């Protein structure tokens, strides 16, 4: 039953069918602006204390059913456990709670009550077998920053149409042709690393961003890439922050950047439409499907606004993820000399064949011949689990594994916890690519998600990583600068400070050895 009480009615409020709980939840949300105000930059202690008193009485949700809510802590009022989640080491954040409460526990992040689930079976129920009960819905702040019409937040026909189009653009057959462009991006970037101290995350973001630009816009250089890159930096900084729309906050800056991205894209779409050429990349595919000649199938067309949100979303999904994963790979290879040697030998084999055959650039078949390097990627996807979880939302009251999940609560399958289970992955905290010599048990490994929302960009991500690793391992060695352990969010978890490294050229003789 949906009863909207106040003008700031959120989906969350729709959740309360029980009368007592309903009144309480609405008063919680009429307080919203007040809380927002109180939580700005420096929070006066007294305000916080007052709010916590008020909040604690309001945050008591009474499950209307006999089944209890899952165990767990909701943290501070409004803020919940958001700050803890995004400042603590994610491995301990999740494993501490799992140890204490079990595979299903509740928490409160980014303004949403959440149920986190860490068993593979339960994750499959949410993402696949009962997916209709758990719609894709991220916290409002994330949906606003990415764009409300973007693929991640939809289901049904609109999602299906978008997915078909995006997936087709990133199939192996579709990305095969871009390998030489990707290689060119690597070859332009690598020389600037030689004998320098670089910030691995920043450099990998440059790389993955340029690849994303090619994937989305084709090779036409019709946009101002540097400007867009800066805007994405703001987006990334706001991505994990509380939705405080107050000047100066990361969220405010991200929303401003988003507006400018939208303007840039809207103009570009207009220009491409006017010129009569759809242009290359995913944007070209979108424009083609929405062109006049296709208008007959109303079903296929997308509005400019929908296209802009999705282009912004795909670029976001493509570059920070890939860059974070690459940063972890650089660290894991650095930490294991024998493994780095073995990967280098594999890549030198490819290099040798290339030179023998007189082909000067990497081919698609080359990249299908890198089993060890591919296992390094698989194991990094597991151990680093840069997407610790994803967001779904209960579309109705659900009873789940003996617990009650109220309608409107977020339900978060914890990829990280599943990937760190010792019964599936013995010595889970050890980096050991050889464990992937055997395929992982079904439902125990889902770095690219599962079900209808699983990642359409997984092949592109793996391809671009293989291309970098080919050149990096055969040309360079690297030392970590300042041995500081730890993890930070940028916006996905990465080694502290983005892993500063010193890059040294390898002995050139060694590279030509295999020929
Ligand atoms: C290492 C890199 C990457 C990782 C770990 C990753 C992971 C994921 C995961 C786990 C999901 C599912 C989210 C969910 O179920 O809610 C997803 C969705 C998605 N990813 Fe990726 N991804 C990566 C790279 C990419 C790239 C390169 C692209 C661009 C081509 C991309 C585009 C997308 C899109 C558009 C979705 C939404 C699909 C949908 O909602 O149907 N990703 N990704
Ligand atoms: C993007 O810009 C267009 C045109 O100015 C506008 O109609 C649309 O609402 C904007 N989208 C978002 C999400 O702000």
From TrEMBL:
Q: Enumerate the Gene Ontology biological process terms.
A: sterol metabolic process
* Major place of residence: membrane
Residues the entry annotates as binding heme = 455
Tell me the pathway: Plant hormone degradation; abscisic acid degradation
Q: Which cofactor does it need?
A: heme
In terms of InterPro entries, this protein maps to: Cyt_P450, Cyt_P450_CS, Cyt_P450_E_grp-I, Cyt_P450_sf
Protein's cellular compartments: Membrane
Organism's domain of life?
Eukaryota
Q: What is its EC number?
A: 1.14.14.137
Which PANTHER family does UniProt cross-reference here?
A: ABSCISIC ACID 8'-HYDROXYLASE 2, CYTOCHROME P450 26
What is the protein's name according to its record? (+)-abscisic acid 8'-hydroxylase
């Amino acid at each position: 039953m949906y009863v909207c009480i106040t003008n700031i009615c959120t989906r969350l409020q729709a959740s309360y069918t029980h009368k007592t709980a309903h009144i309480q939840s609405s008063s919680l949300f009429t307080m919203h602006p007040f809380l927002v105000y109180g939580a700005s930059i420096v929070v006066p202690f007294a305000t916080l204390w007052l709010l916590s008193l008020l909040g604690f009485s309001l945050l008591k949700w009474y499950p209307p059913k006999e089944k209890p809510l899952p165990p767990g802590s909701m943290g501070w009022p409004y803020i919940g456990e958001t700050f803890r989640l995004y400042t603590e080491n994610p491995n301990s954040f999740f494993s501490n709670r799992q140890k204490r409460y079990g595979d299903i526990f509740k928490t409160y992040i980014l303004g949403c009550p959440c149920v986190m689930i860490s068993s593979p079976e339960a994750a499959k129920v949410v993402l696949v077998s009962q997916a209709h009960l758990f719609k894709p819905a991220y916290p409002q702040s994330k949906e606003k920053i990415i764009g409300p019409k973007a693929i991640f937040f939809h289901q049904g026909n609109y999602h299906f149409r978008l997915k078909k189009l995006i997936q087709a653009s990133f199939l192996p057959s579709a990305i095969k042709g871009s390998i030489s462009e990707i290689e060119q991006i690597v070859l332009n970037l690598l020389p600037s690393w030689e004998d320098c101290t670089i910030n691995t995350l920043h450099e990998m973001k440059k790389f993955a961003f340029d690849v994303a630009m090619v994937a989305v816009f084709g090779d036409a250089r019709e946009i101002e890439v540097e400007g867009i890159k800066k805007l994405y930096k703001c987006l990334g900084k706001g991505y994990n922050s509380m939705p405080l729309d107050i000047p100066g906050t990361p969220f405010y800056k991200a929303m401003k950047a988003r507006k400018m991205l939208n303007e840039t894209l809207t103009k570009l779409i207009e220009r491409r439409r006017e010129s009569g050429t759809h242009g290359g990349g995913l944007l070209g595919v979108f424009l083609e499907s929405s062109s006049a000649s296709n208008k007959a199938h109303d079903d296929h067309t997308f509005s400019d606004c929908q296209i802009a949100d999705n282009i912004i979303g795909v670029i976001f999904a493509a570059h920070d993820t890939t860059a974070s994963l690459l940063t972890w790979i650089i660290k894991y290879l650095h930490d294991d000399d024998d493994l780095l040697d073995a990967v280098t030998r594999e890549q030198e084999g490819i290099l040798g064949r290339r030179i023998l055959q007189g082909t000067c650039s990497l081919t698609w078949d080359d990249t299908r011949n890198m089993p060890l390097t591919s296992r390094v990627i698989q194991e990094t996807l597991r151990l680093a689990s840069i997407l610790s979880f994803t967001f779904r939302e209960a579309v109705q009251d659900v009873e789940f594994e003996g617990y009650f999940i109220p309608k409107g609560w977020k339900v978060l399958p914890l990829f990280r916890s599943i990937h760190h289970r010792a019964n599936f992955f013995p010595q889970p905290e050890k980096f050991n690519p050889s464990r992937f010599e055997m395929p992982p048990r079904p439902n125990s490994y889902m770095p690219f998600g599962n079900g209808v929302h699983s990642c359409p960009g997984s092949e592109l991500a793996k391809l671009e990583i293989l291309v970098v690793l080919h050149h990096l391992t055969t040309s360079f060695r690297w030392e970590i600068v300042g041995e500081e352990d730890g993890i930070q969010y940028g916006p996905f978890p990465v080694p502290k400070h983005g892993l500063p490294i010193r890059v040294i050229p390898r002995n050139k003789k060694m590279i030509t050895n295999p020929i």
